[in-house]
Write a structure and sequence with these properties.
The protein is of the alpha/beta class. It is about 40% helix and about 25% strand. The chain is built from nine helices and 13 strands. This is ROK family protein.
Length: about 300
C-alpha cells in the first residue's frame, strides 16, 4: 500500500493526515499554527507533525510517495512558493523547498480551497466528476475549481479567487480593498453582520442578546422569528446570485457548497438548485449544473492535499 501525506495549513491550525492510495484518511494530527511567529517555526511544527504521525502508525517513510500542502493565499505551485497569504501574513515564502528539507519528502503545494475541491472529487460529494466548483462559506468565501479533473490555479496560482468577484457594484468594502465582493455578502461572517444590524433595529427579536453565528440565526428563522427570517431570506438571495454566476462562468457538473453555512443542508441545496435551473444562461437548452453539499467537511483539505501526490 502506498501513502501520501496531506497538510491543511490554516491561520488557526496545522492539520496533517496520512492518506492511502484509495484516498482514505488513515490518521490525523492537529496543532495550533500560531501564525504570528516566523514562518520557519511553522514549518518546523509541520515537519514534527509529519514525523509523529508516521511513528504513531508504524509507517516507514519509504511507503509515502510524497507530501502535499494546501495553503491559504496565492500559491505559485510550480515554484513551491507562497507568494502571498493574508491569513498567515506571509510573502514570498519558499515553503515547498523548506518542507522538503525538513521532512525528506518531495512536496507539492496548492491553494487550500483548491485542495478541498480536489478532495471532494477524489473521495467526496463530487467523486468521479471532472468539472467541479467548490464554494466554502465561512469566515470568508473560498473557491476551488477543478477543470478536466485537474486543479485550475490561473497564472502563477493567482486565479479562482471566487469570493472576490463583485456581487454588488460599489457595495460594502471588502478586506481585499475592493467593494461589493461576494465575500462581503455571502460568507458566514457577512450573515452574522447582517443579523447584528437587523437585531439592533429590532430588539424584540429572539436573537437579541444571544451570541450570533450561522446556526443560531438559521435556528431563529426556523422558529419563525421575523427578523431572522428577513435576514436569512436576503442572505439566501446573495447565495442564489453567487451560484448562478459560478454556473454561468464555469458550467461545472457539480457546484459544491462547503463551510459552516452548508450545515443548513438539503433545504439550502433545494433552493439553490431551483434558482440555478430557472436563472442560469440557456437553461432550457444546455446542461444545468447540480448544486450539492460538500461531504468531507474539514477533512477535504487534507485528502485533497495528499491527492496532489496520489492523483
Amino acid at each position: 500500500m502506498r501513502y501520501s501525506i496531506g497538510i491543511d495549513l490554516g491561520g488557526t491550525n496545522i492539520a496533517v493526515g496520512i492518506v492511502d492510495e484509495q484516498f482514505q484518511l488513515v490518521d490525523t494530527l492537529s496543532v495550533p499554527t500560531q501564525a504570528n511567529r516566523p514562518w520557519k517555526q511553522v514549518v518546523a511544527d509541520m515537519a514534527r507533525c509529519v514525523h509523529t504521525l508516521l511513528a504513531n502508525n508504524a509507517l516507514d517513510p519509504s511507503s509515502c510517495i510524497g507530501l502535499g500542502a494546501g495553503v491559504p493565499g496565492v500559491i505559485y505551485s510550480s515554484a513551491g512558493t507562497v507568494l502571498f497569504s493574508n491569513n498567515l501574513r506571509w510573502e514570498h515564502v519558499p515553503l515547498g523547498h523548506a518542507l522538503a528539507v525538513a521532512t525528506g519528502f518531495p512536496v507539492r503545494l496548492s491553494n487550500d480551497a483548491n485542495c478541498a475541491a480536489l478532495g471532494e472529487v477524489v473521495a467526496g460529494a463530487a467523486k468521479g466528476r471532472k468539472n467541479v466548483v467548490l464554494l466554502t462559506l465561512g469566515t470568508g468565501v473560498g473557491g476551488g475549481v477543478i477543470i478536466d479533473g485537474k486543479i485550475y490555479e490561473g497564472t502563477q496560482g493567482a486565479g479562482a479567487e471566487l469570493g472576490h468577484c463583485t456581487l454588488i457594484m460599489d457595495g460594502l468594502p471588502c478586506t481585499c480593498g475592493r467593494k461589493g465582493c461576494i465575500e462581503v455578502y455571502a460568507s458566514a461572517t457577512a450573515l452574522v453582520r447582517q443579523a447584528g444590524e437587523a437585531v439592533a433595529s429590532h430588539p424584540d427579536s429572539i436573537l437579541a442578546g444571544k451570541a450570533l453565528n450561522g446556526r443560531s440565526i438559521f435556528d431563529a428563522m426556523h422558529r419563525g422569528d421575523p427578523t431572522a427570517t428577513h435576514v436569512v431570506e436576503q442572505y439566501k438571495h446573495y447565495l442564489d446570485e453567487t451560484a448562478v454566476n459560478m454556473v454561468n462562468i464555469f458550467r461545472p457538473e457539480v457546484l459544491l457548497i462547503g463551510g459552516g453555512i452548508s450545515g443548513e443542508g438539503q433545504p439550502l441545496v433545494d433552493r439553490l438548485n431551483a434558482y440555478v435551473r430557472k436563472n442560469c444562461y440557456a437553461a432550457p437548452y444546455a446542461f444545468v449544473t447540480t448544486v450539492k453539499i460538500a461531504a468531507l467537511g474539514n477533512k477535504a483539505g487534507i485528502v485533497g492535499a495528499a491527492a496532489l501526490c496520489l492523483a
